[in-house]
């Protein structure tokens, strides 16, 4: 499995869904649809997205740290 980071390519907003998809072996569109469907449920989905945006490193920083 790959590490958890926001890729340079394939982003729509911040790359959080694309990074999660790459980490868990899914397509980015599947993760985006799951996120949108989860927004129909009560909970802090947007807050979690914002926290992941801040906490997940960019691909450049991740690769520099691992090499």
UniProtKB/TrEMBL annotation:
Subcellular localization: Cell membrane
Segments forming domain Phage shock protein PspC N-terminal: 3-59
Coiled-coil region: none
GO cellular component: plasma membrane
UniProt keyword terms in alphabetical order: Cell membrane, Membrane, Transmembrane, Transmembrane helix
Main location: membrane
Topological relation to the membrane, as annotated: Single-pass membrane protein
Matches recorded under InterPro entries: Phageshock_PspC_N, PspC
Regions crossing the membrane: 33-56
Superkingdom as given in the UniProt entry: Bacteria
Protein name: PspC domain-containing protein
